[in-house]
Amino acid sequence: MTREKKLYLSAKGVTKIFGLGRQKTLAVDNVDIDLYEGEVVSIVGESGSGKTTLSKILLGLISQTEGEIFFQGVKRDINSHAKKREYWKNIQAIFQDPFSSYNIFNKIDTVLLDCINMRGGRYFPREKKIEMMTEACSFVNLKFEELTNKYPFELSGGQMQRLMIARIFLLQPKILLADEPTSMIDACSRATILDELMHLRKEIGMTIIFITHDIGLAYYVSDKVYIMEKGRFVESGSADEVILTPRHDYTKRLLSDVPKIHEEWDLSTV
Amino acid sequence: MTTTMLEVNELSTKYITRFREDVYAVDKVSLKVEEGKSLGIAGESGCGKSTLALSLMGYYFPPLHYTSGDIIINGKNISGLNPDHVRKTILGKEIAYIPQAAMNALNPTRKIIHFIEDVILEHEMYVNKKDIYERAKKLFETLGLPPEVLQRYPVELSGGMKQRTVIAISVLLLPKVLIADEPSSALDVTSQKMVIKMLKHLMEAGFISSMIFITHELPLLYNVVDDIMVMYAGQIVEKGTSHEMVFDPIHPYSKGLMGSIIVPEEGLRDVKLTAIPGVPPNLKKPPAGCRFAERCKFVRPECRVISVPYREAGNGRVYRCIIPEAELREAYSREERTK
Amino acid sequence: MKHTLQQIFRSPNFVVGFSIFAVIILTVLIYPMLIPDPPLKIIAQGTFFEPGIYVNTYDTFSAPAYTLKLEGADSKRIASKLNDEDRLAMQKWLVGFGIPENEIDIQNTEALLDLWNTNFDPSKRFQGMTNADRNYYIRLNNSVQGLLSTAPAIIAATDETTGGLVETDRVQQSDYINVSQVSNVRILPLGTDNFGRDVLTELVAATRVSLMIGFVAGFVATLIGLVLGLVSGYVGGWVDDGIMFITNIFTVIPSFVLLILISFSIGQDKRGAFTIATVIGFTSWVWTARAVRSQVISLRNRDHVNLSKLSGHSIFYIIVNDILPYIASYVVMAFILQISSGILAEAGLSILGLGPRTTEVPTLGLMMNWAMIYQAHILGKWWAYFPVIITIALIAFSMNLMNTGMDQVFNPALRD
Ligand SMILES: Nc1ncnc2c1ncn2[C@@H]1O[C@H](COP(=O)(O)OP(=O)(O)O)[C@@H](O)[C@H]1O
Ligand SMILES: Nc1ncnc2c1ncn2[C@@H]1O[C@H](COP(=O)(O)OP(=O)(O)O)[C@@H](O)[C@H]1O
Ligand code: SF4
Ligand SMILES: [Mg+2]
Ligand SMILES: [Mg+2]
Hints:
B: 339 residues; 10 helices; C: 416 residues; MetI-like fold; binds magnesium ion
């Protein structure tokens, strides 16, 4: 008998419309989602399907046009800077493009120190801070001694994304929104990043919302999969269920369009 | 009896940066592409795939410089030729190249037909625009592209359509060899599939005789090409048929690469992905000996000193490691068991 | 940072622009040390003295005389004194006398004098020659003979006791003095203006003041534009709407018209150079504000800004640390352009007579204004306005060159 899992974050009827009049875009259309403690949930869809918009709404970076967000069972309230700060101690993100995720004028140390400060470590002695940063870097197989005083753009894309994971390691949030964290990275670094992400999840027991356009990746990392098309969830369920026995045509198409290695890739369908 | 469309022997090239530093991006690369065959080049970003593509077309414009080696395209040795001459006589006709992100480099103020006029007028003097239009229209129809695209501006086209248009333009002069450098990396899976379908069609319908396909996406490569060549830090570490390379890699680096493949297929969730620790070496000061030594778990002291030879593994298969094939396989199966 | 500077100084455009600008600045700084005259001091009695070297005549008498026998010195002297009118009259007489016109070259002084001396006869009368004409020719002949005389000039002074003239010195035609032994010599490389001021000294001072006006105007404009652009772009919402409303009003009214109206309403007496500079700044921030705003809007959705928010930073921190550095290079470029357009705006205002009041300092615009009022351009006194135009052009040119040079470095689209 499994213990009843705690509901962390849920969205009810979330809708987002950008622009006005004829330029109106319905980016997210009446979406419901429930996230339980310790789950890895994937949201899969082609580009433009509204994944990033939904994740920004969940993060509280943009506001929804309609619908409610509940955090740990109560309606989310982030109407002041202090409340936002508090909320962001619980929910953090890794973005798609590592090259635009960093302020190019800040050194790597600044990125990590910001996290220590946020967790209340502003007045820790210097040695303690360095020790924490070193630990975080070594968690993602980076050497802090080699990174200190460097700028993020001196790293490769894969290393930058791993530094992002080190950042999450320091912040220890309850929920992580990973918005296509490996789509700009080449295939070999992808495995490293996924490994480290899953390791971190075990380490601090967090819930991960994994956003991707790669259905294979979703299958590999997640417990639950939501398929998103044009702002709506068209299919959801456990990863095995959705990927191995897809029901919706869109899911079937996504699956058939991905090249595979054991099955024939049927080119005649496009 | 097959004809060799492209043969490259021990080609080395380098970049000379503005700060007068040499970047040894391609080091003693040899390869051969037969008529009707396609070759895939895989490897981490920065390992010199794009540079190899430019180098084997003789496209030596600064900062890229030719160092040594031979390039024979369709029987013509073009090594050492003036790059301007190469551009006029070889590129587009014998060998065509679709650069990475080519579709985003189209001048947004010109219509597609204008790019086509440029290409044709550069090589043929006495044609009028009407003939060009007819020719382009016919080509587009054969390739399954709507001819209306010709009158559109690049921004009016979707990413997938733009990429397919770029490919159509690059085969206008019916080149023997087409090099596609990550043609589908920025596209959705559906557009990617259309691009691949078009490339395959080009081969089957005889628009091109051979193709070189560059990508770091291994499942894609596996489905597109006949042979795969894995590059690491400017060198070739292993070459073989795509089936062999994906299911039975020999070189420790290829083994690592193939272990990172993710596809939505049953059983995949239980496979442990292999991650290769560390980063590729700086190509300004490439290490002596095996360039993979820093990250290799089978490294031996001599790996770092001796120049590692290529070994044959039958059936045209080569790999570059001081450890013999049998021993490597043994090590792999031992790992398999301990998991 | 260092790397960027290196790159900027590798751009030929920037280097040329910077060199011109450096020369201008150095001149402005060093010239007053060499010639400390106040720029608006009136030194000449009379208007528009030509550029040249002015030697004190009185001092030349006390300077030691040297005798030099130089070939052609006499004919040069005579040539310079015989004016065109006289030459034509001589020609007319000679033609009347019967010498074919094409044999007389009136520009060849020596030949003309030869012909005249051999042929002139005061008693000769031709048809149509009046008495008055005859007298005129006789007078002309006398002065020509006087020119040919080799007698020295005599300098005399009044004797205080007798009241008669006493010869004090004789100046021979072959006497020379060494200019370096004359105690008072003034070089006026650009002559004097309508008020009798040294144009070069004035120009240097005017350049300094104009640069300062440009700098202040540019600073004010950039500061206002930057702050409004940052706030309106980052904060968005009704704040943005409000600021954009003001900006649009300023855009619809051409800034130069606004500038004219404000200057006019301030009144001549209250218009100091700084007031004008500030007014120029206040009317020209619109462009900067719009550009900054659009840059900020594209930056505020970037992930590094989102990440900074997620790290708990305040709006102020984010604007200063995550937005400002990204647009800094752009703002510097805008600032440089604003300086040069500030200088041009001042010039434009002053030409219309709405520039700074005229009593304290010169500006490039005021110099143009004076030159125009006193019709230097009609009178052909080029030195009163042409150097000013060149200076304005050089400043604007050098600033624009620096700007394009920096653009090549900062703007990825133009980078090779
Ligand atoms: N700030 C914005 N303003 C206007 N439209 C937007 C904005 N952000 C996203 N969109 C639109 O919303 C839709 C969904 O975009 P996005 O959430 O980025 O999709 P995804 O992440 O799945 O690629 C797209 O059509 C996009 O053009
Ligand atoms: N223009 C250039 N100048 C100097 N070095 C370059 C230049 N372009 C690429 N390189 C270097 O050459 C190496 C190979 O690059 P590239 O061929 O683009 O790799 P890939 O296509 O495999 O990602 C990299 O280390 C890169 O840093
Ligand atoms: S040569 Fe040595 S270091 Fe290189 S791959 Fe083989 S075992 Fe590893
Ligand atoms: Mg997205
Ligand atoms: Mg490349």
